[in-house]
Amino acid sequence: MNESIKRKPAHQRRGRWILPTLLALVLLAFLSVQWARQNRALSYQPSFQIPAWEGQAYIPWNENKPFFQENELTTQAYASYSELDQYGRCGVATACLSKELMPTGERGYIGMIKPAGWHTVKYPEQIEDNYLYNRCHLIAWCLAGENANEKNLITGTRFMNVQGMLPFEEQVAGYIEKTGHHVMYRVTPIYEDKNLLATGVLMEAFSVEDQGEGICFCVFCYNVQPGIAIDYRTGESHVTE
């Protein structure tokens, strides 16, 4: 070996790997956070017995307290949607809502989306707006700007969409617009067995900066329509006798 060729000192050789190693660790930490969020979205499925519908659009659940854990609370805005399952059904949708996620343009067309159990059917004598089903956003367009996203749209009755979900969506949107604060938000469609239609959705929200003083609810909205009987296995329906 030519002794005139000198190797660099060990500490200098090690120094070449410090920056790449740090970058790799930062990337790994970022991917871990994203994986954790997606994993929570895929695995979160509250288990409970749904009380029989007695005419109300929604009922409080868990004493109206959301199930968010302390380590889930954040002020970093995001929205996460589950992959469709083997039956084409949406899963849980989770978000940290903020002004930066709220849309500024016009809402687009979503008629091309056919959620699981979808039927285009009218009941003009029973329903003021004629149509039984809406393409219901799990996380409302006004909150996160997600419109024609098949992972965010389920087949929901007009009653659930307007009487059940809308008041809570408007409450959250108004709070964010007024305060500029963040709101943890989660909507979980609840299915029985292989039914294509959800029995309803569990809606949870918790305002972060004021620890729930502004927004704090946990409600179950029934996917029903007064005067109409629904087969939740297929989405087919008929007028009740």
Placed side by side, the strands forming the largest sheet appear as 1-8-7-6-3-2
Mean pLDDT, as a whole number? 88
Strand content is 15-25%
Number of strands: 10
Strand pairing plus helix content: what structural class? alpha+beta
Rg (C-alpha, Å): 23 Å
Task: Please tell me the CATH architecture of the largest domain by its name.
Answer: 3-Layer(aba) Sandwich
Task: Output the helix-strand order.
Answer: HHEEEEHEHEEEEE
Task: Report the biggest beta sheet as strand number plus sense, adding barrel if it closes.
Answer: 6 strands, antiparallel
Count of alpha and pi helical runs: 4
CATH level-4 homologous superfamily of the largest domain: Extracellular Endonuclease, subunit A
Helix content: 10-25%
CATH class of the largest domain: Alpha Beta
Report how far apart the termini are: 98 Å
Which oligomeric state applies?
A: single chain
Summed up, the domain count is 2
**Which overall shape is indicated by the principal axes computed on the Cα atoms?**
globular
Enumerate the spans where pLDDT stays under 50 for 5 or more consecutive residues: 1-5, 30-43
- Tell me the CATH topology of the largest domain: Extracellular Endonuclease, Chain A
